Amino acid sequence: MLPRRTLIGSLLLALVAGCTSSGGGGGDLPAGSELVTKAAAGMKSVTSTHFLIKVDGELPGVPVKDAEGDLNAEGESKGRAKIDQFGQLIEVEYVLVGQDLHFKGPTGGFTKLPAALAGQVYDPTAILDPDKGVARVLAEARDAKTVSSADGVSVVTATVPRDIVAGLVPGIDSDVASTFTVREDKLEKALFELPSGAKVTVELTDFNKPVTVTPPA
């Protein structure tokens, strides 16, 4: 038989462990549906952002492997991208302003093309488009579940219907398992994992900082 002092100590340890377990469990996490709804509303008010896009694997019809730049809600953007051209990665610069896409390859200067051609490669301005960008992706996410939440940052898993996510990430032909990292009412990171094994990551920073885009000289 255990001494009385040892028995009491064991009971106290068990009680403390039980309280700690229940206090840190999933029941205390904010609801995933509430988090993505709040972030969807918050992203609709974003006027500008810095973005980073990475593609791991193959997306049908999408040659972009990664891109980084700045954009505003008026549909203007500037930055750089790496494009797969005949099996080789080529880094390009771009300026999207007004009705024009200014495009510069590894050599030579900028070439001016119709802005509509941006969609044939990847149109980053879709990110802040309320009808097809991150705000709609968040609003239409299904089965949202919070997996962690601390210091104002929450990670939520969900499924996004293919017709919704395709507005943001072209080349997708099925529903997508997604992981969202949100801080307060803003989306900081979205990870889309396709059934084929390909992954697309979108990271957003510098919300609402002034972004001015002018045509290159």
Molecular structure report:
The chain is an alpha+beta fold. It has a single domain (29-205), classed as outer membrane lipoprotein receptor (LolB), chain A (Clam). 20% of the residues lie in helices and 40% in strands. The chain has 4 helices and 11 strands. It has an 11-stranded antiparallel β-sheet with strand order 6-5-4-3-2-1-11-10-9-8-7.
Q: Which oligomeric form is depicted?
A: single chain
Q: Regarding CATH, which class?
A: Mainly Beta
The domain count comes to 1
Radius of gyration: 22 Å
Alpha-carbon distance between the two ends? 88 Å
The total of helices stands at: 4
* Annotated CATH topology: outer membrane lipoprotein receptor (LolB), chain A
**SSE ordering:** HHEEEEEEHEEHEEE
Summary of the model, kept short:
This protein is an alpha+beta fold and 217 residues long.
What are the SSEs and their pairings?
Blueprint lengths: L3 H20 L8 H13 L3 E9 L7 E9 L4 E9 L2 E10 L2 E5 L6 E4 L19 H6 L2 E9 L2 E8 L1 H4 L10 E8 L2 E8 L5 E7 L12
Antiparallel strand pairs: 1-2, 1-11, 2-3, 3-4, 4-5, 5-6, 7-8, 8-9, 9-10, 10-11
Which structural traits does this protein have?
217 residues; alpha+beta; outer membrane lipoprotein receptor (LolB), chain A; eleven-stranded antiparallel beta sheet; globular
